[in-house]
Structure formats: C-alpha cells, structure tokens
C-alpha cells in the first residue's frame, strides 16, 4: 500500500513539474513575441515624440508621425490625426532593432475599402536608415512617388522619418501603391516592401 | 495506461489555463499562413485592434469592419512585430464593428488582440 502511494506521489510530482514546464514554455513564448497587455499599457502611457507631418489635403485632416520609445523596450511609429494622440495607427519593433534588420520600415494606413474605389484616405509613414537617400512608392501603373525624408533621432541613433498622403484622385482612377522602395545615393535599390490595399 | 491518461489530462489542463491567462486574444497564438484571416464578433465597445508576432518582418493587416456597409475602417498594414489600429468613432451615432486581422505572408507565429 505504502509502495503504491509513493509511486503515485512520484507520478504526481512529475506531472506537476511537467505542468510548470509547459506553462513556462508558453509564458516564454508570450514574452518573446511581446506580452500584449504589457505593451498595450506602455503604448497608452509612454510619451510620443513628433517626427514628421502629413499636411491636410482634399478634405482629409492633418496627421502627425510620432516615434514612441516604450518602457517595454520597443520603438513604435504612429500615424495620428492632429490633436488626437490616443488615435494611433502603426506598429512597434524591438528597440534593439527598430527597422527589423532592414534599411526601411513602413506602415500603410487607409480608411474605406477594401476595394480601392471606396478608399477615402490613404497614408504611408516610415523610418529609414541614414544610408537611404530616397524613398519612393511604386504605383500599379508603373509611376513612382518620391517621399520627402526628415531627420529623426530614436534612442540616440539617427534615422529618417516620413509621412505621405496619397492623392485621392489617383485612387479614384485606380492608381494604387504596390510597393515602397529605398534607394541609396547611387540610385541602387537597397530595400523593397510590398504594400497596398488587400481585402 | 491510467497513469499516462492522468498525466495527459494534467498537461492539457495546464496548457488551457496558461492560454486563458492572456486576455483579449481573439485568434492565436498560432501559426499563420498567407491569406488567413480572423475576426471578433460585432460590438460597439471595441477600442483598438492589434496583431502581435514572434519577431518582426511579417506582412499583416488589422482593421475594423462595420455591420452596416461592411466597409473597412482605419486599416493598417505593415511588417512590424506589433501592428495596431483604433476603432472608428462618431460623436453623433454609435458604430458597431468587428476587429479583423489578416496574414499577408506565411508562415509566422502570432496572435490578434482586441481591446
């Protein structure tokens, strides 16, 4: 009887250890890919720094591009309607690597859609490394839109920040963005990221 | 055999409890493949919608879809580790919408979160 009880106790202990290990693995997974609640709280509280502007146009309000370094170790880039800092559209990467290992990090935001004909406003924001000389948006008709870059400091490092609003006239004619490219000083393409409306 | 069953049940219970401990996740954490989508139910209470991934570099979209025109609102598409947008708001009428997220590439590990 005693032997059987001991055996069950050992089995129970193994099971508990296995549970703890499983929970630990799962918890580690959440931590690694950003604890959603912790990051969301930090985004709510941590200060925003203005990096670029998107002027009002065609009835659409002015927007601002903000950089936010969070207490959770992230750098976030936000597209925010003027004077409404809680209305954020964008994203965050690790502060150790704000561009996620590339020369360019972009975020595309639009209202309306998903079909291009019903889009009312579309904007692009981004951060670029200082070896990027030019950022261009490639449209589906083959034309390109050059984006003005503005110097920005993030966590002691220099970057370029930008914000761009697409012409509603282009969208009405079915001319829409398909990619964003970064060019170096020689004009060589050093990064390309697919974007666009994708319902 | 019985003992194995007990251990298996305990492991499953711990997995479910660990998953349930993280609030506001409506899809995942799981492996995502290109073209896969997920949505919440319709509600006037949603405030923000976010897609978090294991690492950065995965093209994905978050948006809100209203329950009248089924139009998309405040859509964001990027490759950040955390992609977020806010719910549409009107001071004049209530907007009922659902959070929606989409993986534009695959495969990666992540979850869609609603607040």
Q: Can you walk through the features of this model?
A:
The complex is a heterodimer of chains A (199) and B (115). Chain A has 199 residues and is an alpha+beta fold. Chain A has two domains: 1-33; 36-194, no CATH class. Chain A is built from three helices and twelve strands, in the order H-H-E-E-E-E-E-E-E-E-E-E-H-E-E. Chain A has helices at 2-32, 36-45, 168-172; strands at 49-54, 63-69, 74-81, 89-94, 104-112, 119-128, 134-139, 144-147, 150-154, 157-165, 177-183, 189-194. Chain A has a four-stranded antiparallel sheet with strand order 1-2-3-4, with no helix packed on it. The longest helix of chain A has 31 residues, at 2-32. In chain A, 34% of the residues are buried. Residues 23-32 of chain A have low confidence and may be disordered. With 115 residues, chain B is α+β, with helices and mostly antiparallel strands. Chain B has one domain (25-114): Jelly Rolls (Sandwich), CATH 2.60.120.380. Chain B has one helix and eight strands. Chain B has one helix at 2-20; strands at residues 25-32, 37-39, 48-53, 60-66, 72-78, 82-86, 97-103, 108-114. In chain B, the strands form two sheets. Chain B has a four-stranded antiparallel sheet, with no helix packed on it. A four-stranded antiparallel sheet of chain B has the order 2-7-4-5, with no helix packed on it. In chain B, strand 4 (60-66) and strand 5 form a beta hairpin. In chain B, 42% of the residues are buried. At the A-B interface, helix 1, helix 2, strand 3, strand 4 and strand 5 of A face helix 1, strand 3, strand 5, strand 6 and strand 8 of B.
